[in-house]
Amino acid sequence: MTMPVCRFVVSACLAGEVQKYLARGMYEEAMRSAQRYEGIFVTACPEGLACLPVPRPPCEIREGRVLSQDGRDLTEDFFRGARLAMEIARKHGCTAAILKRRSPSCGVGRIYDGTFSRTLCPGDGLWARMLREAGFALYTEEHLPEDI
Ligand code: SF4
Fold first, then answer.
1. What whole-number distance in Å separates Cα of residue 80 and Cα of residue 46?
2. Ligand 1 pocket: which of 59, 61, 106 to mutate (most atoms <8 Å of CB)?
3. Distance (Å, whole) CA 74 – CA 72
4. Cα distances (Å, whole numbers) of residue 142 to 6, 34, 122
5. What percent of the chain clears pLDDT 70, i.e. is strictly above it?
């Protein structure tokens, strides 16, 4: 089955916020019908796709590994989820992503430093890094694209 082409893949936990943003601007009219969003964005949650539990302990990246605050190494789970989220983005023909900031999966440009002390450092979450390397334009809920 052919998937509808969407410009944006969006962190699933942000979808409601992005919809609100769209509703404020040029897509106010489209807000009257959820179906109008077809072809604009599709959502994905890499950690959900990896079947990580909800709720789950905080996780941060340290020296290339994804560690949970309770001491587990979840790197392989996070990579599996990121790869599945990439598949969704590619299947839908997305070229840009709007991602949840600071997350070890979705964070763009700045993430927590692995010390669980709320300290930020330069870097991307695992999925964000895959998207960046694949040439996607990256945005966050703080820096939304101006032309949607
Ligand atoms: Fe899922 Fe976390 Fe990314 Fe939100 S920030 S979409 S919960 S992986």
1. 8
2. 106
3. 6
4. 21, 24, 16
5. 79
pLDDT in tens, 71-83: 999 999 999 999 9
CA of 1 to the centre of ligand 1 (A): 27
Residue 3 has pLDDT above 70, yes or no: no
Residues composing the chain: 148
Q: Which residue has the tokens 């890499």?
A: 46
CA atoms within 13 A on the CB side of 106: 22
> Residue 60: what are its φ and ψ, rounded to 5°?
-140, 160
pLDDT of residue 42: 87
**How would you write the chain as a 3-class SS string?**
CCCCCCCEEEEHHHHHHHHHHHHHCCCCHHHHCHHHHCCCEEEECHHHHCCCCCCCCCEEEECCEEEECCCCECHHHHHHHHHHHHHHHHHCCCCEEEECCECCCCCCCEEECCCCCCCEEECCCHHHHHHHHCCCEEEECCCCCCCC
- Looking at the predicted structure, is the pLDDT value of residue 56 above 80? yes
